[in-house]
Specification:
Strand order of the largest sheet: 1-2-3-4-6-5
Oligomer: single chain
Number of helices: 5
Protein name: Intracellular iron chaperone frataxin
Radius of gyration: 14 Å
Number of domains: 1
Largest sheet: 6 strands, antiparallel
CATH architecture: Alpha-Beta Complex
CATH topology: Aspartate Aminotransferase, domain 1
Pfam families: DUF1801 (PF08818)
Number of strands: 6
Order of helices and strands: HHEEEEHHEEH
InterPro entries: YdhG-like (IPR014922)
Distance between the termini: 30 Å
Domain YdhG-like: 16-111
């Protein structure tokens, strides 16, 4: 988690910081083979050099990007969880619960789907 500490320290709201830290810690523990890193000033996780999932903090929500292919695969579940989305990211309002089972499925999908991927992003 130390790779994310500077990022977390810049989140002024204690509750938001704790929530982001909880999620990043959960991913680190649940998927220990993923590499935590900061890129484009945002926390993310990679596997064998390819992007798996990334996060950003906004005033009204925590956003995460699993890439378009993963988002499209889980769009119904994203909507059922009460999250909003764009083509490339999903927004979790700060007052909504984090659906850890959905995160787990999306991360597992990206790991398996990108197993043979040799680029950072899908082509």
């Amino acid at each position: 988690m130390e790779v994310f500490q500077e990022y977390l320290d810049r989140i002024n709201d204690t509750e938001k910081r704790a929530r982001v830290e909880e999620l990043l810690t959960w991913i680190t523990k649940r998927f220990p083979s993923l590499v935590p890193r900061i890129a484009w000033s945002q926390p993310m996780f990679t596997d064998h050099g390819t992007f798996i999932i990334g996060f950003s903090v906004a005033k009204n929500h925590l956003a995460f990007s699993p890439e378009k292919a993963c988002l499209n695969r889980f769009l119904d579940e994203v909507m059922q969880a009460g999250y909003s989305n764009t083509k490339e990211l999903i927004r979790i309002p700060w007052d909504s619960q984090v659906d850890f089972s959905l995160f787990e499925k999306m991360i597992e999908f990206n790991i398996m789907d990108k197993m043979e991927c040799s680029t950072f992003w899908r082509k």
